[in-house]
Design goal:
By secondary structure, the protein is α+β, with helices and mostly antiparallel strands. Helix content is 30%, strand content 27%. It binds flavin-adenine dinucleotide.
Length: 389
């Protein structure tokens, strides 16, 4: 008799345990659905976009839409922190400045949305944050901070499990096949898993997977092409090692035509003694995350060191640690959160998705279960498919 491959079943399968997938699994399981979370390696693994201890949580966006979404996301973070009893966002505040960041416009938007903020002159800001050489007016947001990405993923996975979800590590999905009752998920090693509905949250691996998901071609044609960057970040020590001044560093976003940079206290990854600094979209572009090699470019390191010398006099311009991370960007930097025939696609990255994680988990659960809709801007596949009807 031939041996049967063991086959599991589940109401919902979520693919990928980064910030997006773990949030979706948590929210689906919390609503009482049967969930299996399939992860290629382990949650928040070092090759994903959700590893490490530092992502910026900020309200400042040039459109009220996203600023308001952050406001909504904050209640999800408060809920998660209170359930797990751990601080996941360190509220250090944020400064936004630079000729092309337009702090005054950001301040107007935060005013509209009802978020506490202050517009400071450059000299006034230098007095408050002596480590930064501000070159324009500055938007200060006291409610911003640093998200511990890895701790957040682990907390959401733990919550999903607490509500009955099954989590399968080392389960790389190869393809999804449509069946009479839903879908059969195939692993690269031949294992299978049956389910009624699927949420795909594969981060930078999505471009590679998209053609193997049994999605209608009209839907796929609407999904914009992704740019997958291997970003690089460097940890620089604080020049002043007095604990109070080390704790006083905010997160920052500095935009000028020739260089866009962001930085934040690096937390655990940086041994709590330095600022993580990066050039925005300074990394090489790949077809998908499987092409990453984790190698930091010497030219990028040099550019960031020169930036620190000019604009961050409160740091010693010699990095003591460095890392790479994957940005999966759409042309407009809007997220994809779309659904067709029981398959929900989540691509909430474009380098700014971490701060929305609990909210995106709720929105994905709404969409996947049909409980509610999501903003149309997140649904380009459905829009394209409807035009073909
Ligand atoms: C350098 C950097 C800085 C950032 N800074 C900020 C910031 O300051 N503020 C902010 O809000 N956001 C920031 N972001 C964005 C944020 O980190 C991402 O939005 C978020 O981590 C994306 O999570 P994800 O779950 O979509 O992807 P990922 O974290 O990559 O998760 C995808 C998961 O799917 C798994 N997977 C892939 N393929 C398969 C498969 N076939 N089968 C099973 N599992 C699979 C992967 O192993 C991975 O665990 C930053 C990102 C980077 C890289």
């Amino acid at each position: 008799m031939s041996q049967q491959t063991p086959r599991e079943t589940s109401e919902y399968v979520v693919i990928g345990a980064g910030l997006a997938g773990s949030a979706a699994a948590w929210k689906l399981a919390q609503r009482g659905y049967e969930v299996t979370l399939l992860e290629r390696t382990t949650p928040a693994n070092a090759t994903s976009s959700s590893h490490g201890s530092a992502r910026i949580f900020r309200y400042a966006y040039p459109e009220p839409f996203y600023a308001d979404l952050v406001k909504q996301a904050k209640s999800g973070w408060d809920e998660l922190e209170s359930i797990v009893g751990t601080q996941l966002i360190n509220p250090v505040g944020a400064v936004d400045y630079g000729p092309t960041r337009d702090p005054r416009n950001l301040a107007n938007i935060l005013e509209q949305v009802g978020i506490e903020h202050e517009l400071l002159g450059a000299a006034e800001a230098r007095e408050r944050f002596a480590g930064i050489a501000f070159d324009t007016e500055v938007l200060w947001q006291p409610g911003a901070g640093v998200i511990d990405a890895e701790a957040s993923v682990l907390a959401m996975v733990a919550q999903a499990k607490k509500h009955g979800a099954r989590v399968e590590n080392n389960w790389p999905v190869k393809s999804i096949e449509s069946t009479a009752t839903g879908y059969r998920i195939h692993a690269e090693d031949g294992r299978t898993q049956d389910c009624a509905k699927v949420v795909v949250a594969a981060g930078g691996w999505l471009p590679r997977l998209l053609g193997n998901l049994s999605l209608p071609s009209g839907f796929v044609s609407g999904i914009p092409s992704f740019e997958v960057f291997q970003e690089q970040a460097f940890h620089f020590p604080y020049a002043d090692s007095v604990p109070e001044s080390m704790g006083a560093w905010p997160t920052y976003i500095h935009k000028a035509a020739e260089f866009q940079s962001y930085g934040l206290p690096g937390g655990r990854d940086a041994d709590f003694r330095g600022q993580k600094v990066a050039e925005y979209k300074g990394g090489r572009i790949m077809k998908d995350a499987s092409e990453q090699d984790g190698v930091v470019s010497a030219a990028n390191r040099e550019r960031v060191i020169n930036y620190v010398k000019t604009f961050l006099p409160g740091l010693i311009p010699v990095p003591y640690a460095e890392t790479t991370c994957i940005f999966t960007s759409t042309p407009t930097e809007d997220f994809i959160l779309d659904e067709t025939n029981g398959i929900t696609i989540m691509s909430p990255c474009s380098g700014h998705g971490a701060k929305f994680a609990p909210l995106l988990g709720d929105l994905a659960a709404d969409l996947a279960t049909g409980a509610a809709g999501v903003p149309q801007v997140f649904r380009p596949g459905s829009r394209a498919a409807s035009l073909l009807v």
